[in-house]
Specification:
Elements (H helix, E strand, L loop, with lengths): L5 H10 L6 H4 L9 E6 L6 H9 L8 E5 L2 H13 L4 E4 L4 E2 L6 E5 L8 E7 L11 H10 L1 E9 L4 H11 L2 E6 L5 E4 L13 E4 L3 H13 L4 E4 L5 H12 L5 E4 L13 E4 L3 E3 L4 E3 L2 H8 L10 E6 L2 H12 L11 E2 L3 H10 L5 H13 L5 E2 L3 H10 L3 H4 L3 H8 L7 H15 L17 H18 L9 H21 L22 H7 L2
Length: 523
């Protein structure tokens, strides 16, 4: 019997879900008898504290889980529980600190084990359900967590979503509206660079701006801590600690500080009101402004937090943002990815389905859903084009194909090549050595950060294919070396280099090339 064409196959897969109800996307979900307790409100309102108090009530033989949006948040809660004598494990995509006697698992949300049964489960930052890149993980956790008590933390924007969810599933829902422990207010006027005082979090939206302003404040006599998105989490944490310990007067950072770090700033200054989205510069959305501004005024340290812009335009944006509220999130705004149960249903019925068939059918199916929207699949199809040409990849079980395609890969060429090398080693059942520094001992910060990403990708695969990616100790040693070198370079003052000749640019240069290269290009 001939295999059906793609269009026929897509139609056949779509027919499996009949009317498109959520129960067909999450067949066998353990819901209907859970008690959902939601603490919803702004930053600095005690939501994480509530989670820790509930997790402390879990005792053997029962288990609990805390699901974080970031490795740093999972680590923070893990350390807090352990400091209170509670046995806990830490699991992220790239690390596993397993305590065989643990009653609590602190995990990044993508690492949820939906087969486990929990007495208490915590989902943090629930509003991330509407994020096009990662929202699927929050949707999956909401539907698939097998638990008696589900504690949901996040913005008040998810209130209607949770109400609609509980009404449909039969779970009970209790919502607590949290309030900030300290007042948050805007200053009467913008805070100019000359008026910035120690204890200020100064926020920009690019690595280059972090370098420019860090150099500016150092020249003014301040000690400066710096954080940006490409910085390894260990370095971010170290820089945050310097700011907490007052070793650094000012923190200059991107929106990477919006969540996951304890920063005792009395004032937050937003120095920019737009950011680059990969295509063009766009206005910073008010919800992000509120999230960042909410870092001001740490409870127990300050009576109030202050927020401001750097100039009249950005200051007006801060005032307007703090006067508003996050847009309410309803169905079908949550993003969703194929659940394991749905994949098993499809593959059990049509075992020769290709990964392209599966994903294209899924996209069309979700396009007509009243419950969800499909996440961005451009990256996964780019990976399919890269590794799908390897014949051995196609004979893997669908769950393994999707696992390999889910690897957190920076899509720049050097990282894609390393990703393909790892996949080839797995498929050919070979052992791939861990990355190394080679002979180059004078790598720039960006080069060290790029190598760090390769190390973390190697670690990610090690925990899934240890025989083909075996050198976890060597990878960990290199990780420590990279973190140390990056930390040193950050504290010495980050530099920018001419993208043509490589010469060091002046600290306050706003251009990516030096004057000599600019002159030659316009000769």
């Amino acid at each position: 019997m001939k295999s059906p064409t793609l269009s026929t196959r897509v139609q056949a897969i779509m027919a499996l879900t009949r009317d498109g109800h959520w129960s067909h996307f999450f067949p066998g979900a353990h819901i209907g008898n859970r008690q959902i307790i939601a603490y919803l409100g702004p930053t600095n309102s005690g939501k994480t504290w509530q989670a820790i108090q509930l997790l402390r009530t879990v005792h053997k033989p029962y288990k609990g889980v805390y699901l974080a949006p970031l490795r740093l948040l999972a680590l923070e809660v893990w350390e807090e529980l352990r400091s209170q004598g509670i046995r806990a494990s830490l699991i992220t995509g790239e690390e596993q600190e397993i305590d065989p006697e643990a009653v609590i698992v602190c995990s990044t949300i993508e690492m949820l084990n939906s087969e486990e049964v929990y007495q208490v489960a915590v989902i943090d930052e629930m509003q991330m359900v509407s994020d096009s890149q990662r929202g699927w993980a929050w949707t999956r956790a909401l539907f698939e967590l097998n638990t008696d008590k589900l504690l949901v933390l996040g913005s008040a924007s998810v209130t209607p979503l949770l109400e609609q969810f509980a009404e449909s599933t039969g779970d009970t829902l209790l919502i607590h509206e949290t309030k900030r422990y300290t007042r948050l207010k805007t200053t009467a006027k913008p805070i100019t660079p000359k008026a910035v005082k120690p204890g200020t979090l100064f926020v920009v939206f690019s690595r280059n701006s972090v370098i420019l302003w860090g150099d500016f404040f150092r020249k003014k006599g301040f000690s400066v801590a710096q954080i940006y998105g490409a910085m390894p989490p260990e370095v971010r944490r170290s820089e945050a600690q310097r700011f907490r310990d007052k070793e650094a007067d000012i923190m200059v950072a991107t929106d990477a500080v919006a969540m996951g770090l304890n920063l005792p700033a009395h004032t937050v200054v937003l120095a920019e009101d737009s950011k680059y989205n990969g295509v063009s510069r766009t206005k910073v959305v008010p919800s992000l402004v509120r999230q960042i501004a909410g870092r001001a005024g740490r409870y127990g340290l300050h009576e109030a937090g202050l927020a401001a812009g750097l100039d009249p335009s950005s200051h007006k944006g801060v005032i307007q943002a703090l006067a508003g509220q996050d847009d309410a999130i309803h169905f079908p705004e949550p993003y969703v990815a194929p659940s394991y149960a749905w994949i098993d249903l499809v593959m059990g019925t049509y075992p020769d389905t290709t990964v392209e068939d599966l994903l294209q059918a899924w996209q069309q199916l979700i396009a007509g859903s009243k419950w969800f929207q499909a996440g961005d699949t451009d990256e996964i199809f780019q990976k399919i084009a890269l590794v799908g040409q390897i014949s051995a990849f196609r004979v893997l079980p669908m769950s393994e194909q999707l696992q390999i395609l889910a690897a957190p890969v920076d899509l720049r060429d050097v990282h894609l090549k390393f990703y393909k090398r790892i996949v080839q080693a797995i498929l050919l059942k070979q052992a791939l050595p861990a990355p190394g520094l080679g002979r180059n001992e004078n790598l720039r910060t960006e080069e060290l950060e790029s190598l760090y990403k390769q190390v973390m990708l190697y670690r990610w695969f090690h925990y899934r294919y240890p025989e083909s990616v075996p050198e976890i100790k060597a990878a960990t040693r290199l990780q420590d070396v990279l973190v140390s070198r990056i930390t040193t370079q950050v504290r010495q003052g980050l530099r920018r280099y001419c993208r043509i000749c490589g010469v060091v640019l002046p600290g306050q240069s706003k251009h990516g090339i030096c004057q000599a290269c600019f002159s030659r290009s316009h000769w």
